[in-house]
From TrEMBL:
Keywords of the record: Membrane, Transmembrane, Transmembrane helix
Entry's localization field: Membrane
Protein name per the record: Sugar translocase in surface polysaccharides biosynthesis
Domain GtrA/DPMS transmembrane: 2-83
Family: Belongs to the GtrA family.
Topological category with respect to the lipid bilayer: Multi-pass membrane protein
InterPro entries: GtrA_CellWall_Glycosyl, GtrA_DPMS_TM
Membrane-crossing segments per the record: 6-24, 36-55, 67-85
Organism listed in the record: Bacillus badius
Length: 92
């Protein structure tokens, strides 16, 4: 369990910095880092919901549903991540 927790945290931090520098080309800040877990919450919620729907309502094999759920969860996660990481606009 300690290895799992450490690996999760390291991958989370690396994901934040890679998304900041390479995907969205923005400067990472503490405020953005603290909001970043929302993207993972959206990913978890969307993939879980669609796995449930695919299995319970469409009868798709549970070995396949995680792959299908990624196709739904990934765009949702990308949108949330972009809103968190994109440069803040100056309010008038």
């Amino acid at each position: 369990m300690p290895s799992h927790v450490i690996a999760f945290f390291v991958s989370f931090v690396v994901s934040f910095f890679l998304n900041s520098y390479f995907t969205f080309k923005v400067k990472p800040t503490l405020a953005k880092f603290l909001k970043f877990p929302l993207s993972q919450a959206v990913n978890f919620a969307a993939s879980s919901l669609f796995m449930y729907v695919f299995i319970e309502y469409f009868g798709i094999n549970s070995m396949i549903t995680p792959i299908l759920a990624v196709f739904v969860a990934l765009p949702a996660t990308f949108i949330v991540t972009s809103k968190i990481l994109k440069k803040e606009s100056v309010s008038a």
